[in-house]
Amino acid sequence: MQEILEQILWDKCGGLIPAIAQDHKTQEVLMLGFMDKEALELSLKSGFVHYYSRSKRRIWKKGEQSGHAQKIISLALDCDKDSILISVEQQGVACHTGEKSCFFNIINTKEGKLDSNMESKINFNASAVYGVVDVLYHTLLERKGADPKTSYTAKLYCKGENTIAKKIVEEAAELGFAIKDNTREEIIYEAADLLYHSLVGLAYKDISPDLVKQEILRRFGLSGIDEKNARVD
C-alpha cells in the first residue's frame, strides 16, 4: 500500500489529487472528487471510496449519510501520476442531487449552452447524499463568483458581513413575530428565509453546515442548562 501512495506526485497537485469514479459495469463516469493521501489510504484499507471535501475540509466516506457507498473494484493512475480513476460498484446514486451521475447537464455544442431540459434540473431527493441544506450551501458557495446584478446572494456577499448579519437579525425577528401572531404557513415561510440567510452567513465565512450538525450531535445527552453554564467564564 505504501508503495502505491508513494508513486503519486502529491506535491505537484498541492496534496490533493482528482479522483474520477466510474461504474465498473457500464463504464459511465459517475463523479469527480478529490483525495489526499489519508483518504486514499482509507479507501485502500476499507475497500470503499473516501474523498477529501474541500468545502468541509475533512475526509468523508462516500455514502456515510445516504448509504450510497462506492465499493472499489479497481484503481488506475494516469500517466503523470497526479490523478486517479476508480472503477466502482455504485450503491444507489452517485450525485447529491439524486441523479445517478453528477454529469447530467448536457451541453448543446451547436448553441454553446445547456440543454433546456437539463438547465435547472435539481432533484432534492430525501435519499440524496447530503440533503437540501447541504445542496443549498454548496449552491451558495458557487454564487460567490456570480454577478451581483443578477444574483441576490452575490449582492449580499458584495455588501459584506454587516449587511449579511443585519439580514439574519431581521429574519430572526420576523420569524419570532410570525410564531407569535401568524399562521402555520407564514411561520414556515419566515423560517425558510431565516435558514437561507443563515446559510449565506456560513458560506460567507466558509463554514460548512456539517460542522453545525456535529456541534448539535455533541450536545445530545447534555443538559441545556449545563451546556450554557459551561460557556460562562
From TrEMBL:
Q: A Gene Ontology CC term for this entry?
A: cytoplasm
Q: What's one Pfam family the UniProt record gives for this protein?
A: PRA-CH
Subcellular location(s): the record lists: Cytoplasm
EC number(s): the record gives 3.5.4.19, 3.6.1.31
Is the Amino-acid biosynthesis keyword given for this protein?
A: yes
Provide the reaction this enzyme catalyses: 1-(5-phospho-beta-D-ribosyl)-5'-AMP + H2O = 1-(5-phospho-beta-D-ribosyl)-5-[(5-phospho-beta-D-ribosylamino)methylideneamino]imidazole-4-carboxamide; 1-(5-phospho-beta-D-ribosyl)-ATP + H2O = 1-(5-phospho-beta-D-ribosyl)-5'-AMP + diphosphate + H(+)
Region described as Phosphoribosyl-ATP pyrophosphohydrolase: 133-233
Q: Where is this region: Phosphoribosyl-AMP cyclohydrolase?
A: 1-132
Query: One of this protein's GO BP terms?
Result: L-histidine biosynthetic process
Under InterPro entries, the record lists: His_synth_HisIE, HisE, PRA-CH, PRib-ATP_PPHydrolase-like, PRib_AMP_CycHydrolase_dom, PRib_AMP_CycHydrolase_sf
- Family per record: In the C-terminal section; belongs to the PRA-PH family. In the N-terminal section; belongs to the PRA-CH family.
Q: Per its UniProt record, what HAMAP family does this chain match?
A: HisE, HisI, HisIE
What protein name applies here? Histidine biosynthesis bifunctional protein HisIE
- Protein source organism: Helicobacter winghamensis
What gene is this protein a product of?
hisI
